[in-house]
Amino acid sequence: MLQIRDGLLLEDPVLGKYCNTASPPPLQTTGPTAWIHFHSDFTVSDRGFHITYTTSPSDPGCGGTFTDSEGILISPNWPNDYAHNRQCFYLITLPPGEQVALNFTNMDLENHSDCSFDYVEVRDGRMETDLLIGKYCGSTLPAPIRSSSNSLWIRFKSDSSVSRAGFRAAYSIACGGILSGTGVFRSPYHPNPYPYNKVCEWVINQQEGYVVTLNFLSFDVEGGSCSFDFVEVRDGPSPSSTLLGKFCGDQIPPRLQSTQESMYIQFSTDSSVNNHGFEAAYDSAIEGCGDTLTSPSGTITSPGHPTNYPHGANCTWYISVLPGNLIRLVFDSFNLEYHANCNYDYLEVYDGTGTTGNKTGRYCGRSVPPSITSADNQMTLLFVTDSSLSGEGFSASYVSINASTDCGESFSSPTGTFTSPSYPNNYPNSRDCTYKIIVQLNMQIMLNFTSFELEGTPPFCSFDFVEIRDGGYETSPLIGKFCGSQRPPVVVSHSNRLWIRFHSDPSITSHGFIAHWDGTQTGMCL
């Protein structure tokens, strides 16, 4: 027995079923595929059959292959009634890695409970045998469709009876969507140029108690005032949520973090210039674990502070102030699990954006770290905890300072530590910093330099130097002027004040210094 179907599926119409010796008449399918089945039993056999086939063009307006980034599909003769006994196949294929968005704008087909007469059939792939998304008839518009790959296969079929106006559908490259957990998303066609006149919206949702982090891996969007093409990021699930940033150009935006469990991202393009677009990675973080800070001043605390921080935390804070300014970070409290090499729980501070910059230090235990001044307008803090002990964590504040004029500080705590700018990395050129230490009345100050390396050779110290005065002013009695690699002697003030100046010239730099003071005693002399 020989059976021929008009298509590849068992439910497709049978064009003919043949046996004996009579030659069947010529057959023509309504589409580009045919299914031919030959069956023989276990008794009599014969010479069999021989078939020849040819192809012929399909009717104009009936199906086709679509490869543009967007387009329109219509039934034959739309918006007039389609013909009887038609079968049209539409194949949409976009570049690998993309997805197809299909939206029906008009739908008017003969209605039936299981759409067995006239229908539109959509499959997730390139072939009739791929996963069925839906089979549609009547006048109800199908819900928007999105492929899982770069192709959609669509069939329109009409029978021999009722005909209607048919359908109209628009397709485009899919972008946007609802995301969660960890992943990567990108602009359409990335790394190739993105399409014109496109609006893509993503909403990233994380579980309760977590926030969203966003890191751009590459970025190339038409620049200017960000009124043409742009990426907009908002702190929440909707276009009306608080704006975190609007970005264009070719500079990678800073790391962004929401304050709640959702983040909204919109990518919008106009009809002119199209660049390569962007790629971004998203993740979750414990609420209060990390942030992106752009205000001129602010506070940073470990998660849960002043209660114990959680185990297994990995938190990153990015501080970015205006160009031409530096960041001064001062710790108010500090209590982390101790280890000689800070291998368990620790806080690391880096110059710049990210942990690839110069590491200023790694800190743990109960000793409050020294105040830290960045080398430029960006600083990164990384807080990591293991699965065992935990403590109260830390609290710190930062302030933006003018890079050209301000790098000193005033201290009033009984004990503490301060360093040259960027220590232990080389201090910048052309810097003039003043440090004032003021402790309780009737107390004296003991100042001890534990590390010291400046340009110059004593006793002249004409280039880079540290100058110490016994009092609170630049006119107070001079104790000494120090440079080179020999540590200054331990200094004891006569009053409750010390004035220290650090100066660097425009040429050679070195590691600088770290100094500790103790203002808890009186009656000292050296």
UniProtKB/TrEMBL annotation:
Residues 1-56, 62-174, 174-285, 289-401, 407-520 form the CUB domain. PANTHER family: OVOCHYMASE-RELATED. This is CUBN. It comes from Poeciliopsis prolifica. CDD domains: CUB. The keyword Disulfide bond applies. Keywords: Disulfide bond, Repeat. The keyword DNA repair does not apply.
